[in-house]
């Protein structure tokens, strides 16, 4: 869903070719390389946050069979995503469109806010991006060792001690 490259390294024609290639099998969002860890939060890690499973569990609790619950939850999120993508409207506007005064939806939205759903999602992505940064630091160190064998004896890389991410030594 996403590509990253240094635009200065390619001509406009080459960039068009790169984007057309990736568009041939999905949507494309081009971001600067330094934002790729943030992309991991939205596109890579987020399916594991179990929104579909949690939504399904919430209706299984009231008697909906598990497979039906998964289908209902997945189709609901798919439909919501399509509305955002197709209309271009802000997700908050779409939420407002389905929340009637004192209705069931606004009651559910109020509960999500009361119990910190938005904050939990933001915190989950914060932990994911920290992990992505640490992974890239370890990858950088391993690359350094491969390219510059003397780096094995290094106690730190880019000013960050090896022990910062649980790596005591690369030896």
Question: Notable features of this structure?
Answer:
5% strand, single chain, 171 residues, mainly alpha, two-stranded antiparallel ribbon, 61% helix, two-stranded parallel ribbon
Structure report:
The chain is mainly alpha-helical. It is built from seven helices and four strands, in the order βαβααααααββ. The strands form two sheets. The chain has a two-stranded parallel sheet with strand order 1-2. Strands 3-4 form a two-stranded antiparallel ribbon. The longest helix is centred in the last third of the chain and has 31 residues.
For the sheet with most strands, the description reads: 2 strands, parallel
Mean of pLDDT: 80
Largest sheet strand order: 1-2
Which oligomeric form is depicted? Answer: single chain
What's the total count of β strands? 4
Secondary-structure element order, as H and E?
EHEHHHHHHEE
- Give the C-alpha Rg: 22 Å
Structural class: mainly alpha
In short:
This protein has seven helices and four strands. With 171 residues, it is mainly alpha-helical.
Sequence-ordered SSE layout with sheet pairings:
Layout: E1 2-3, H1 12-23, E2 29-30, H2 36-45, H3 51-60, H4 66-87, H5 91-98, H6 104-114, H7 117-147, E3 156-157, E4 160-161
Parallel strand pairs: 1-2
Antiparallel strand pairs: 3-4
